[in-house]
Structures are given as structure tokens and as C-alpha cells.
Amino acid sequence: MKFFIDTANLNEIREAQDLGILDGVTTNPSLMAKEGITGKDRVMQHYKAICDIVDGDVSAEVIATTFNEMIAEGEELAEIDDKIVVKVPMIKEGIKAINYFSEKGIKTNCTLVFSAGQALLAAKAGATYVSPFIGRLDDISVDGVALIEQIALIYRNYSYSTEILAASIRHPMHIIQCAEVGADVMTGPLSAINALFSHPLTDIGLAKFLADHKKAGTK
Ligand code: E4P
């Protein structure tokens, strides 16, 4: 399972990259705004800064919502770095744009996916990644992990190469459940990734090993 970090914060990206288990980054307009990154030039520079840190795919989302504008914006984003994946919303114009990018060999991430039907369209258009938002589904009492499982079954049935990128991850159990049902990738906050490290028995066990070692050394 690939691990992506879902942030535009450079320090968090560096921290995750330093762990040696990071496979990529996803961003969105809200995450960029949270870091105070506004204006085309600054946005482009920030994507480049992210690409320079991370060893893997970096999703950069288009703001445009019409086919021609998405193509122009996506091609410009793709020129920033080979690591850029053009993130396109799940709308009719977006599916047309994904089809276009796919024929041009530009990687895409179909975002804002909330149903199996939408995921099927993304795969048919040739998306590199499809991003079902499982946390936002859970927020409205719909089982987000069940959607990942359903999409995995459909993609297996037809051998689609589109990778399932479980997005809107909120906590470590989401990561584990997505791994169980076969998500190819998960993208989550640093807090969810860091939470995977924790187990009280690890802490107790390590403390005892170190104490016993110290005791043996004093004999
Ligand atoms: C995915 O690519 C999105 O950026 C993200 O996972 C959305 O997460 P949220 O629902 O926590 O905003």
C-alpha cells in the first residue's frame, strides 16, 4: 500500500519524507489556502517546492471547471515537474479532461469521488488515480470503507489499471481498514500516519529492555 500525505505544509511533508515510508503528496485548494499560498506564481512555486522534497507523485488540483480551461491549467501544472499528477474534479468536463490527459501521457487523479458509478467513469476515462473521500462519507453516516471495497471489486472484475487512492482519511483505523479491503494508496494527515507507530506494549517493552540492559551493566 502506498502512503501519501494529504497536506501542503512543507514541514509536515519533510517530516513524513524523512520517515522513509512516503510515496507521494496530495493537495487541494483548501490545503493550499490553509498554508496562505495564493496567486498563480506562488502556487506554482509551492508545487515545485513540494516536488523537490518528496520522492513520488504530487497531486496538484485544477481550479478550472470547463474542459478547455482544465486542459490549459493541467498542462501548465504538468510542466512544473515529472512528479505532478493533475487532480481533476469528478464532473462531466473533468472526465473529458482526464481522457485527454490520459491520451497525452499526463498522470491524473480524479477527485471528489463518492460513489462506485463515479469511480467506474474515472477508470473508463483512464485516470491514474481515483480518490474516494471516505471520511466525508463517514461524516454523513455512509460507510466510506465499504465504498473502497466495492470499487476494488469492480476494478478487479475488469482489470482496470486506475489505482484506488483512499482520501479524506481521518484516523489510523481508516488506514488499516483501507489496507484490508485493498486500497492501492491512502492519503492522510501526518497525525494519522504517526498514530500507526503507537502501541503501549511497545513503550513498556522497550523501557523494560533498556532497564534490564542498564541493570546488567552495573553487575
Ligand atoms: C484528497 O486528495 C483530499 O485532498 C482530501 O483527502 C480531503 O480530505 P478532507 O475530507 O479531510 O478535507
From TrEMBL:
Recorded GO MF terms: aldehyde-lyase activity; transaldolase activity
GO cellular component terms, A-Z: cytoplasm
Stretches that traverse the bilayer: none
Record pathway: Carbohydrate degradation; pentose phosphate pathway; D-glyceraldehyde 3-phosphate and beta-D-fructose 6-phosphate from D-ribose 5-phosphate and D-xylulose 5-phosphate (non-oxidative stage): step 2/3
Similarity comment: Belongs to the transaldolase family. Type 3B subfamily.
Known role: Transaldolase is important for the balance of metabolites in the pentose-phosphate pathway.
Protein name: Probable transaldolase
Source taxonomy: Bacteria, Pseudomonadati, Bacteroidota, Cytophagia, Cytophagales
